[in-house]
């Protein structure tokens, strides 16, 4: 009897949830919370800071306004995100992760590193600035960075970030990229091409995909700090 009482559900699951795995495993409950289509990607877009509804749609061009509204309401109901109105003169509503919501970043890092090894992963597909920032945080190699110290601004479409490398650690946060030692400006795929594809900064500039300003030595070194894991079936090294 005691066991039965201990294992009885303390609730009916996330508000508005249409399906539940009815499984006590915490991983199953995580999927109850964020397993609906698009839910995790909404969380991904908010990992870099608060965003307006239109900003979220721009980062997720395949999602409809109706579905985005549903996911935002569902994630708010379970405590993953919240909404607030910015003070005047902006006076616009934004969505942002709760402290608990931000704790999900290691999930994205583990999934990203694992999925990057898939032989079916197509890195040429579109992706957002938030996705690029999370990728940098995931793939950064302290060993490669060594004693390097510097900042690189990232102008990714309409969004701006500053990546700082110091003491073998990387931080990337929304900030004015023009304050950095070097600046890479272009759409997220172009910046990623400089970092992951082995294309030179000069080649991307010549193609009109990327603009590099400031200390080019710092910019060039920065792009070498993010090795990708080998794909399944490929030999390391």
Oligomeric state: single chain
Provide the spatial order of strands within the biggest beta sheet: 5-4-3-6-7
Q: What does the largest sheet look like?
A: 5 strands, mixed
Instruction: State the total count of DSSP E strands.
Output: 7
Q: What is the CA–CA distance across the termini?
A: 58 Å
Structural class: alpha+beta
What does this structure look like?
The chain is of the alpha+beta class. It is built from twelve helices and seven strands. The protein folds into two domains: 23-103, Winged helix-like DNA-binding domain superfamily/Winged helix DNA-binding domain (Arc Repressor Mutant, subunit A, Orthogonal Bundle); 123-222, SCP2 sterol-binding domain (Nonspecific Lipid-transfer Protein, Chain A), CATH 3.30.1050.10. It has helices at 2-7, 26-34, 39-46, 53-59, 65-77, 99-102, 105-115, 129-139, 142-145, 188-196, 201-206, 216-222, and strands at 81-85, 93-97, 150-156, 159-166, 169-174, 182-186, 211-214. A hairpin with a 7-residue loop joins strand 1 and strand 2. It is globular, with a radius of gyration of 20 Å.
